[in-house]
Amino acid sequence: MPLSENLTMQTDTTSERIRCYRKEIWDRLTERGAAPEYPIAFPSTLRSFSLGEVAEILGVSGSYLRQLSIDGLGPTPETGTAGRRSYTLPQINELRAHLASTRPKEALKFCPRRRDGEKLQIISVAVGSASTTTSFYLAQGLALQGYRVLAIDLDARGSLSKMFGYLPTGYPVHNASMSAVLRYNDDRVSMDSVILPTNFDGLYFVPGTFELFEFEEESRVRYRSKFGYPDASIRMVDALKEVEDRCDVVVIHCGHEGFLTAGAYEAATGVLMTVRPEWPEISSMTLSLAHFQHFVSLIEQAGRPVAYDFIKFLVTRHNPRDLLQQEAVALLRDSLGNNLLTATAWESGAILQAWTKNRSLYELSAGEVGRSAYEQAMETLNSTNAEIMDLISEVWGRPPMYVSRASRTAGKASS
């Protein structure tokens, strides 16, 4: 008798029969050593950065860094052909510490980490056009500037996690997401248990896995049962307090799940909404705003006031040569005023090429995607990130500096 018929006879329900199919196939693959281990994480190391790139990141001249190296001050760079110097990201952060100690008046510029009395910044990126890409490049951009960053993926499909090279799909992963930290029984784990390193020094992340679906369903059941309203939001707030001493910024990539999203909005100190400048996409964004309003109103009705440091909107996938998009951006700017970020994230083939290589643009050199496309994409990424970093500086009572620095860099690239 064929195995499939035997399984059908042995099981009572369709779901049990499907489970048996999966187990049988998986066991056969395991016997042959052909079963992959999940989650799959692409092992990758971050490239080194040229002396010119490091000078732009730190906001100093290349000649100054070259002289530091000649004098034996700071970390020793790698030396390539023709004596060209390059630095790893840990070495760049060593340079930050050295410059902050030798130039104390500019310490905040070189080492922007939180000081005593400055609160943890938690930026929730709402579901929208290119919101995953925005979360990804914001987290990496902050880490490149010397911040300690935690990125959290609340998408059960793991869209942000895949960009980090983490593939949780294909087999259930236990205790690998915020679900394990937030769950309602005594099996809750600490944040340390679910935080993973990345190839960026100072950047860590919590993956999104199918377990988040289970947490969302349990929250829904509790909401409809005798347990009453679930405290998912409060649990999210409490969980992030565990990383307060080790992080400067938390970037939360919201998924489509309601209770988890409500938790992200309650924990947030700032919210970023993305929109593509096309009329259907703007209509869709207004629906996201309605959901946002609904979640916040529920939190307020529970007696917990919500006060964000900022709510900002970012135009993504922008083609500045498209006349209809120009009109749409003008409408958004007229409607939202200063709440719409000045910089827009342009549609970029270079960013798409990086994604097909399982890398971010920050991880690639210009030659791998074409110099012109690379420089244009980097300009738009750095400009949008600069505005957000200046928002953080403002919250912390610091003078803005990133937008002006990005403008100087963009001018140099254009020339």
In short, what is this structure?
The chain has helices at 3-10, 14-31, 51-58, 62-70, 89-102, 107-110, 131-144, 159-163, 178-182, 211-224, 232-241, 258-267, 279-301, 323-336, 349-356, 371-395, 402-414; strands at 40-41, 49-50, 78-79, 85-87, 121-125, 149-153, 166-167, 196-197, 203-206, 249-253, 270-275, 310-315. With 415 residues, the protein is α/β, with parallel strands linked by helices.
Describe this structure in words.
The protein has 415 residues and is an alpha/beta fold. The chain has 2 domains: 49-110, Multidrug-efflux Transporter Regulator, Chain: A, Domain 2 (Orthogonal Bundle); 121-414, 3-Layer(aba) Sandwich (Rossmann fold), CATH 3.40.50.300. Helices cover 49% and strands 11% of the residues. The protein is built from 17 helices and 12 strands. It has helices at 3-10, 14-31, 51-58, 62-70, 89-102, 107-110, 131-144, 159-163, 178-182, 211-224, 232-241, 258-267, 279-301, 323-336, 349-356, 371-395, 402-414, and strands spanning 40-41, 49-50, 78-79, 85-87, 121-125, 149-153, 166-167, 196-197, 203-206, 249-253, 270-275, 310-315. The strands form 3 sheets. Strands 8-9-6-10-5-11-12 form a 7-stranded mixed beta sheet, sandwiched between helices. Strands 2-4-3 form a 3-stranded antiparallel beta sheet. Helix 11 (232-241) packs across helix 12 and helix 16 (371-395) packs antiparallel against helix 17. Mean pLDDT is 88; it is low at 411-415.
